[in-house]
Specification:
alpha+beta; Beta-Lactamase; 6-stranded antiparallel sheet; 40 strands
């Protein structure tokens, strides 16, 4: 059977309830749709991110493949040059070629260049001298040697091996050597895998991304990460299947490498070489940002959805609960009426309507009984019915309280008397609280209690308190009374006056006294004594601090005694007094602050030099009892040193004669250490020269020691400045208006070649010193600036050709500016070395023209100008001396070098301002003609060829040496911007000239094959 409350709830369901339930269902459906859209959006973002990652890794593989192709192409050309020189038995050219190769690439990239003969015996190494003895090394078992021995392969890349000489991993790049079509050995160039690995590592920002270089058979050549764990090994078989078809590139995803991380790989074959580049980016790192955003959005959406569901469900529950509450309200009102009739006091509701009328919506029977009037209904209510029974003397106060409550819309609590029908007086307490109604009326809910007996008791108690107060007024103590049962604490007028309040300024409870007036540090001892008194009736008397009206603390003496206990001996009332002891406590604290809390050591002595008193600091330092001394101790007994005793006696005599003395002297402390003190003595009574004296001792030991240490530090600093290997000048703007120099050294005078002594330099006014430095250096130095952020370093050239580096350092300690330190370095030798190194790095040692590296750098700039449209087209002319080997064989290499220099001299005189001549190696030269076209380039090439024919080299004692050259011409146009392609095509045109009769110029054509072997 359903409960009455549920039945009432069902009966009071409204259409609004069904609307709320329907709205709740709609919100839940909307949330489900939102989550479906959310997950679809995240799936789309994940797919887009994955596509972008694949594009990125493929682009990296393509770029690295081009770089690796460039590296191996350059090494192939270099080995061709060395191979030709070795086959022609041109040892000098061979050594120069090795030198050029070794210095054309970063240090450590090429670990060794070696040669083995046809039997596999190592006969040459550029890092170790090969001896023909029984310890000769053979490489017959090496893979690359067997390949060249049995196959016609011009260029071979081996698996990484450890070299027998260097004991390092290396990749062997090899070429077969032939002489008169007979196999005579193998040339080996050892390339360091670490060099390639280091280049790969610089490509990726994420250290766990990887790039690997492998042969087409799967052998590892280099890897950006964990290279030491994969060298000598091969790629997994399932990976090799991807490379066996004719595809040039591809991609895959797998857990690979020693770290077994999931990566996205893209691979590409290296054009022209049996190599494969594979780049992999770590999958988890790639999707980390997206995953974090997804988790964050998922968390926020879950929280938002949860909050929305909670709000919707709570709102629906509250709306339905309201229907139930409305049904229960009727029943509760009925129960309330039963309860109101049984309350001993009177209950009422008074309402002031917006039109100003007054009514009593509710009263219980006791309301009328307490006022001694007949009951009336709300419709028959008149204010006169109540006012006629109230005592006339209480009406003004009653009107004031109710009027204030009406004006401020707050509760009232008022006592008044009513005159009963039999003429007796009854005291009533009326309490009501205001409530604003929806129609802006004011409704008071209140009660009335009969307090006649309480008022009679209060009047009796007031009379007794007045009598006691008059008694305490005579002694100026405050009287207090504590009701243990009600926790009420009452003060008399004197208690309020002590703390700066008007009489009865506020009501007070014992808890308020503890929290608002009693000092927190006195609370513990107060509660201890109070507890002992309440339990065992011990004396309750203590000194404590109470807070005054202006926030100060007043020292009082609290005394009290329990005056009333109940049947179980529990206290019910306690009476006590406050006594103002502020002046006495202040005087006591003053003495303690002066003597005991002083930073000085204070000692009082008698005329016989006996210690009478020692403050806390003096007692600790001299190991004495604190305060007044109970035993006689002579001040001289503390110091067994004769000099100290004599000094103390002297001070005692002076103070007794003059009344005051002051001096500094070291005294022994309790730990036998000597400490300097500032000693001041004075008579306690200036009129009594044989009386007691007070001594004040201040510790000045740190100052004495600091002064001593400062002198030593100054000497060390002067020695350091003088021995400094550069010129030093220290200035301080705070020491004077004209002279700011505080330190300098002899090296400064020597470096600047000043005609001054060191003392004259330091004494020189600052503005004169600045002028002197300007005359020497040609640069104005502001020696007195005090900008903390203006430190600088500047290099200038003096008039005598020397280079001077001037460095300025701000001297700062704990954010305080101390001055400026100027350092003058003579860096002339360093500048000369830099200039020599710059020339050596960019010129050919034999001819003095640009070397291969410098020429390629200039060619790169030219290609960039063409790509930007700054230059329309340019030309490369490759030049090679015909039959130059015959010149060397006939006249010797020294004469061959003269021929090369003669060729350079002829060509250099015919070049324009923006043209460049460079030597690529051996007898091979190249000319860059900037901003020219095909016709002009061919005409210039022919002009160069004819000039060389008409100007043979003249050698002393040998006469004239005639020689010719072959030329290959390539026109550089946009968008062809590859250095390698440009040089390769010019080289192809050159060797077309050599294959077709020599002593001619050839313009490169598309139909010309790539040059793979020189003629």
């Amino acid at each position: 059977m359903p409960s009455p409350s549920k039945s009432l709830w069902r009966e009071n369901l409204t259409p609004a309830s069904f609307i709320i339930l329907a709205s709740t269902g709609f919100v839940i459906c909307a949330i489900v749709i939102y989550w479906i859209i959310f997950f679809n959006t995240q799936r789309t973002l994940y797919q887009q991110t994955e596509q972008q990652a694949w594009v990125r890794v493929r682009q990296i593989s393509n770029a690295v493949s081009v770089q690796v192709e460039t590296l191996f192409t350059g090494l192939n050309y270099s080995m061709i040059d060395m191979k030709n020189n070795y086959e022609l038995q041109n040892n000098a050219a061979f050594q120069r070629a090795i030198y050029n190769v070794s210095h054309s690439y970063p240090r450590g990239s090429i670990t060794q260049i070696s040669i083995a003969d046809a039997q596999g015996k190592l006969i040459y190494s550029n890092i170790k001298q090969i001896k023909n003895d029984k310890n000769a090394m053979y490489i017959t078992d090496r893979e690359y040697f067997q390949v060249h021995l049995h196959q016609k392969i011009d260029f071979y890349i081996s698996s990484p091996i450890k070299e027998k000489f260097s004991n390092q991993w290396s990749i062997q790049l090899t070429k077969p050597l032939y002489r008169k079509h007979k196999f005579i050995g193998v040339m080996i160039l050892s390339l360091s895998p670490n060099y390639i690995s280091q280049y790969f590592q610089n490509i990726f920002d994420n250290p766990i991304d990887v790039i690997l270089l492998a042969r087409e058979d799967g052998t590892y050549l280099a890897r950006s990460q964990y290279q030491d764990k994969v060298l000598g090994k091969m790629l997994p078989k399932e990976r090799l299947k991807l490379f066996k078809n004719n595809a040039q590139n591809g991609s895959y995803e797998a857990k690979t490498g020693p770290d077994q991380l999931q990566r996205m790989y893209a691979w590409k074959r290296v054009d022209g070489f049996p190599l494969i580049i594979s780049s992999g980016i770590e999958r988890q790192h790639t999707f980390a940002a997206l995953d974090n955003a997804y988790q964050r959005n998922l968390t926020y959406n879950l929280i938002g959805t949860g909050l929305l569901l909670v709000i919707v469900l709570i709102s629906a529950w509250l709306a339905l609960q309201r229907q139930r509450n409305l049904a229960m309200l009727v029943q509760q009102r009925r129960h309330f009426m039963y309860l109101a009739n049984e309350v001993p006091g009177g209950l009422f509701q008074a309402c002031i309507h917006p039109d100003g009328s007054l009514s009593l919506p509710f009263t219980n029977p006791s309301f009328f009984e307490l006022h001694g009037i007949q009951p009336f209904s709300e419709q028959n209510f008149k204010l006169d019915y109540l006012t006629e029974c109230i005592h006339p003397e209480d009406m003004p106060h009653l009107y004031t309280v109710i009027g204030d409550s009406l004006h401020n819309q707050k509760e009232w609590d008022v006592k008044y008397r009513v005159i009963c029908p039999d003429g007796s007086i009854r005291w009533l307490r009326n309490h009501a609280k205001a409530q604003i109604e929806e129609d802006h009326g004011i409704l008071w809910h209140g009660y009335i209690l009969d307090i006649t007996q309480d008022e009679i008791l209060q009047e009796t108690l007031r009379q007794k308190e007045e009598h006691l107060r008059l008694t305490f007024m005579a002694v100026q103590d405050g009287l207090w009374q504590w009701n243990y049962i009600t926790d009420e604490l009452k003060w008399d007028k004197r208690c309020y006056e002590m703390l700066g309040y008007a009489h009865n300024a506020f009501k007070l409870s014992f808890e308020d006294f503890l929290n608002l007036f009693l000092h927190p540090q006195d609370r513990e001892i107060f509660m201890q004594q109070l507890s002992q008194h309440l339990k065992y009736e011990h004396e309750f008397r203590l000194e404590a601090r109470l807070k005054t009206a202006d926030g100060r603390w007043l020292w009082v003496e609290l005394r009290g005694k329990v005056t009333q206990r109940d049947a179980s001996s529990s206290p019910t009332k306690m009476l006590g007094t406050y006594t103002d002891i502020q002046k006495r406590v202040e005087h006591s604290h003053l003495v303690k602050a002066v003597l005991d809390r002083s930073n000085s050591l204070i000692v009082v002595t008698s005329a016989k030099h006996e210690i009478l008193y020692a403050n806390e600091r003096a007692a600790k330092i001299f190991h004495l009892p604190y305060g007044e001394q109970k035993t006689k101790i002579s001040f001289s007994d503390l110091h067994k040193d004769d000099n100290t005793n004599e000094k103390l006696i002297e001070l005692f005599n002076i103070v007794q004669q003059t009344g005051y003395v002051r001096d500094e002297w070291p005294l022994y402390m309790y730990n036998s250490t000597l400490n300097w003190f500032d000693i001041q003595g004075a008579l306690l009574d200036p009129e009594d020269h044989s009386g007691n004296a007070i001594w004040t001792l201040n510790d000045v030991d740190a100052r004495h020691r600091a002064e001593s240490d400062l002198a030593k530090t100054q000497q060390r600093l002067e020695a350091l400045v003088e021995q400094f290997p550069s010129g030093i000048l220290v200035v301080d703007t705070s020491i004077g208006e004209r002279h700011h120099t505080v330190a300098a050294n002899q090296m400064l005078i020597s470096t600047l070649q000043l005609d001054l002594s060191l003392n004259e330099l330091i004494e020189l006014p600052t503005h004169e010193l600045e002028k002197t430095l300007y005359r020497v250096t040609g640069y104005h130095l502001n020696l007195t600036h005090n900008d903390l952020d203006e430190n600088f370093k500047k290099t200038i050239m003096l008039t005598d050709g020397r280079y001077l580096e001037i460095e300025n350092l701000s001297l700062i300690n704990s954010c305080h500016f101390l001055g400026q330190c100027w350092i003058f370095h003579d860096i002339t030798p360093q500048k000369e070395r830099e200039s020599q190194l710059e020339i050596l790095a960019s010129t050919d040692a034999l001819t003095g023209i640009s070397n291969r590296r410098a020429f390629i750098n200039r060619l790169a700039i030219e290609l960039e100008d063409i790509s930007k449209g700054l230059t329309t087209s340019s030309a490369l002319i490759m030049i090679d001396i015909d039959h130059f080997k015959t010149v060397n064989d006939t006249y010797g290499h020294a004469i061959g070098d003269l021929v090369l220099k003669h060729l350079v001299n002829i060509l250099s005189k015919q070049l324009g301002k923006n043209d460049l001549l460079g030597r690529l190696g051996g007898e091979e030269f190249v000319i860059l003609l900037s901003n020219t076209n095909t016709t002009k380039a061919f005409e210039r090439a022919e002009f160069f060829r004819e000039m060389i024919i008409s100007n043979p080299a003249t050698v002393v004692n040998l006469g004239m040496i005639n020689f010719t050259v072959s030329l290959g011409i390539y026109i550089i146009k946009q968008p062809e911007n590859s250095i390698e392609n440009s040089l390769e095509r010019a080289d192809s045109a050159l060797y077309f000239s050599k294959r077709n009769g020599r002593n001619r110029s050839t313009l490169w054509q598309e139909s010309m094959p790539k040059n793979s072997k020189k003629i």
